[in-house]
Amino acid sequence: MQLPIDEDFRPPRWLRNRHLQSILPSLPVRRRWVMPRTAAVRAASQEILLDCGDGVRLQCFHADPARCGITRAGRIAVLVHGWEGNADALYILSLAQQLFDLGFDVVRLNLRDHGDTHHLNRELFHSCRLPEVVGSLQRLQGLLPGQPLHLVGFSLGGNFMLRVAVQADTGLHIASVIAVSPVLDPGATLAALEHGFRPYHQYFVRKWLGSLFKKQAAWPGHYDFTELAGAPDLRRLTTLLVDRFTDFASLEDYLNGYAITGTQLTALKVPSTMITALDDPIIPVAGLLQIARPPALQIVVTRRGGHCGFLEDLVRPSWAERRIVAQLEGALKRRRASLRS
To answer: What angle do CA 109, 163, 110 make, to 5 degrees?
Structure first.
């Protein structure tokens, strides 16, 4: 099966390297431009602790455009970060501001044990904790009734949002899903991190260990991860945590538990868009050939862009962000036109 290529994204020559595209979006050098232009959405955001059921709480930040005199669009945009990211990631804030300016209620959700939330729930985060993400969206829908949800996720967040959309019996009113560089086959991603560009592997080991020690500090009577500091290898570290803190029979069972390859997306009926790049160093492109292609799913593949990059310069929002905004703005205009007619 051939992948149709979207040629619209054409970064300048100096930004064509896939590692540069993957690393630059989160570097402090971009903060000097992103933070000033996202001041409004940050000021309008209020923390909410969502009751997700079974005693689980997840943190989010809700920005109501009415607080700034912006006419509400009657739509909710829920933005979800990648693994070891958080609701204040630069790419999340940048997109949040643009959707906020359009009148969307913008919700920036932190997954369990991301951001400063390690104290909220005793059990550890893992990528198969889908029910609590569904529960958080159900709670949000109850707090903001009558407003359909537009779900946008990056990397692991995109994987979560697509899996949420497949759930047919959740009672959620989901208008659309957009997943940027979503994790497709976790086993292939783990192998890419192990055998690819070494700094990615080192980055995630360092970030994950730091998160685990925050968890230990929050729950000193339950966790002691001191010995894990001697396992600076993602596969070994993941295997140890799966064996000790989950009910999965093996590492393979765990990784398969959140894969969206094979038939996992067959039942997808929510209009969904996947944006990914051929040169993504973390999500092997072969995974795109292994996913179901239901009519509701549109796949946008670019030649370049790296992992969650799609930058054309250091200052402006990324090409992927502008694509998301254009898509959601188009849906909003169509809704308003139908209401007038």
So the answer is: 15
pLDDT, residue 335, reads 72
Is the CB of residue 143 less than 8 Å from the CB of residue 169?
Answer: no
pLDDT tens, 211-246? 999 999 999 999 999 888 877 799 999 999 999 999
User: Which pair of tokens denotes residue 68?
Assistant: 């700034």
Token pair belonging to 123: 């059990």
Q: Which residues contact 57 (CB under 8 A, 6 or more apart)?
A: 49, 50, 51, 120, 121
> How much is the pLDDT for 340?
66
For helices 130-143 and 156-166, the axis angle rounded to 10 degrees is: 70
Neighbours of 329 (CB within 10 A): 16
The whole-angstrom separation of Cα 252 and Cα 36 is 44
State how far Cα 45 lies from the chain centre. Answer: 19
Query: What is d(CA 306, CA 286) in angstroms, rounded to the nearest whole number?
Result: 15
Q: What domains, with CATH codes, occur in the chain?
A: 13-197+263-340 (3.40.50.1820)
Query: For residue 72, is pLDDT > 70?
Result: yes
Q: Binning pLDDT at 50, 70 and 90, where does residue 75 land?
A: very high
Residue ranges of alpha helices (H) inside the chain are 18-23, 28-37, 39-44, 90-101, 130-143, 156-166, 186-195, 198-218, 234-245, 251-257, 319-340
Find the mean pLDDT for residues 333-341.
Answer: 70
SS3 109: strand
Read off the pTM. Answer: 0.96
CB 52 within 8 A of CB 139: yes
Q: What is the dihedral of CA 167, 171, 175, 180, to 10 degrees?
A: -40
Sheet holding 105-109, edge to edge: 45-51, 57-63, 105-109, 76-80, 149-154, 174-180, 272-277, 297-302
**Strands 45-51 and 57-63: what pairing?**
antiparallel
Does 27 score more than 70 pLDDT?
A: yes
Instruction: Please answer whether residues 103 and 71 qualify as being in contact, where contact means their C-beta atoms are separated by less than 8 angstroms.
Output: yes
